[in-house]
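Newbie here. two chains, one complex. Structure please?
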Amino acid sequence: MSIGLHNSEFKNPVVRWIDQRMPVFTMMQKEYGTFPTPKNFNYFWNFGALAMVTLMIMIATGIFLSMHYAAHTGLAFDSVERIMRDVNFGWLIRYVHMNGASMFFIVVYIHIFRGMYYGSYKAPRELLWMLGVVIFLLMMATAFMGYVLPWGQMSFWGATVITNLFSAFPVVGNFIVELLWGGFSVDNPTLNRFFSLHYLLPFVIFGVVFLHVAALHITGSNNPLGIEPKGPQDTLPFHPYYTAKDSVGLVVYFIVFAVLVFFAPNYLGHPDNYIPANPLVTPPHIVPEWYFLPYYAILRAVPDKLGGVLLMFGSILVWFVLPWLDRSPVRSMRFRPLARIFFLLWTVCFLVLLWVGAKPAEGTYVLIARIATAYYFAYFLVILPLLAKFERPLPLPESISRPVLGGGPLPAGAAAKPMEKA
Amino acid sequence: MADTAHAATDGAPRRDFLKLVTGAFAAVGVGAIAWPFIASLQPAKDTLALASTDVDLAPIAEGQAITVMWRGKPVFVRNRTGKEIQEARAVPTNSLPDPAADQSRVQREQWLVLIGICTHLGCVPLGQRPTDARGDYGGWFCPCHGSHYDTSGRIRKGPAPKNLEVPQYAFTSDTKIRIG
């Protein structure tokens, strides 16, 4: 890159003046305007943008909530009730934030499902995928600490149970737990540091999302066929084609979001969290928020404290090595007749774990949780590595345009430069 | 690209219309979203519920002043002496920096009720206690930047642009007022 003013293509004098000195307009135009995007996206490709929008909603509502919230065990519960009753539109901002967490996880789960089904984690997008797993882990930490802040019964006992998970580790366990608590039980120091971290982590997430998008813009997007675009005939400029498609999805998303906020704001919550925290009484049936239930089910499926904790953490950490467990060169499950079935079965398993995590840990439920847990790990550690060797994938289409345009001749651009590697 | 050329002939007004409608729709949406956020910054209902203060005037002797808290601000309530009232009324109004007759600043001539915040930059002026400096006009003196207020709380000298503000208040009985 040469030193000196950037050679800007913008005509507006103010935009041009800025762009010459700091080419942000050129960058936006390149990354979000003309950015070549596979032309065959389906609506699953909306969910990255939806997640981004949800992150911004969460940060905006969170900043405004924190202006009214008091991070002190004696004040926290009442300050949240004050937000609900006295602060203008406080009920709305809190319900959006509360249900926004659920919507965020729904969107991100679908986004992850998309990545797994269409093989978006495979080379050259391994790092992009791993950054996504980092974002997901940060989201989990943020959501957990946020749930503690209202200081209701579920907040308190959720915090107690989750922080105690770390006590399972030999030698350092108790040290870590006291480090989290800042004392000898979940108390005011815990609440204070959780509030601080709950405010910090979304901005860390924002930073990692930036890296996630930066990595995406190097490799380009995957697509439902899982084959690389072979030239301009296979892509469309991001704007207006995908800005428009994302907007359609966004409108539908907002409708679902609004239905939840306005008609069932507490549907996904737990009524016990409207009882102020009491360190002397544990509620009879404690469950985490719905989005943690699959991991909670895995934790409870193992009849050993350390084993359960390791398997629970392992259930997400295994995603990090997914690009190396699945060695099949075919990305999209559309062309993998066996992997497709095994993966959809894995998805069912995930949902079964989600369901069984909310049930009492006894009788048949434990058996179901164990079977589902076994399959969860078997899929990653046994089935995928074996499938790469034994599965015979269906023939891949020649290009993205080909199946759309039928067997006919390629468009002019494609004929001129056949098989150009993107 | 061929489509664009076609659209330019007969589709342009239609495209303009769609762009305008989309833009207007987005603007209304952004406004509707911004509204509750901005409203949440305004005083909450519990804050508004504390927005009036009752003051018992009976214990305040002539020449004495008390300071009460109203909406988080100091309010000066002064039981003026006859001399102070006379001084305040003797000044020709049009010679003042912020002309106002003493009569327009009190409901009962003896009782002067003021928000005790200097109109310059928000300090609390001295003059409530008998030992305080009261400035050149026997009212209040703001030590921050040297503003002098008279016995009607009007600015007479110094950088403050306006008279001390008179809050909304009402006599609920002969010896009681409600501020706010």
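Moderator note: Chain A touches chain B through 13 residues (CB under 8 Å). The first strand of chain A starts at residue 36 and ends at 38. Thread marked as resolved.
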